[in-house]
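ok so i was messing around last nite and threw this chain in just to see what happens. nothing serious, just curious
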Amino acid sequence: MYGLDVLHKFNWIRLIARMFEAMAGNYVHSSDIQLFINVINGSLALHAEDACILRYCMATIVNAAHQFKNIFSHNGYFLIMPSVVRIYSNNQTNELITRTVEFVCKQLYVLHRKPFLLQMFGSVAPLLDGDDVGSGGGSAFGDAFKVQPKYLYKLLCSLSKPGHDLLHMMELVKMKKPLTALDFCYQVRTAGQLLDFMSSPIKVVLSRAIPRTSACSSASPCACWSSPTTPGRSAPARC
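result:
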């Protein structure tokens, strides 16, 4: 029964991959492909340890990120990254899975750069396990439905290192190799380091945390930073 289920999921993955190839890539709504992506997520959740399933699923994800670049540059990674990162966190003893996920995330980062990072952080944040494993706050192995923060950090560190395609997954990717950024503004930039990966979400959080007062205009800087203090007058209050 197990072998039959693996064969069933494999045929479904190949069908979804062929459907993606035949579809036009000018969709702008992620709901158009969400049902198809769910097949990939479910197959990974059930049979991630199977090399053939893992190879075809990861290749289909990379092809979809290129085919539907408008969706994935906006919110498409919210559909796949929670499952991918959870599988990575729960299979640290399986080097084939971890190194394949690291390689795939590296390729996805090359394609979309900052949109990929921001969507990955946004989709994984609710899944992070806040319990201290081994200190009495959680089980010895953590919550299987959560993502361990240390493994997310490990995945981020792997983005700045050269990866290896252990499953020869790139043979199934219908793009010119090596992959390049889809957005022209990233074409002249190389992959960054860990500080570069963390800077984008930190800037987003800071922009949300610092309120804009009515005295500040979005078109011009605040007077407290642009106008010097004249003699006999007090300095304007900082915004």
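not much to say yet. Residues 213-239 have pLDDT under 50 and may be disordered.
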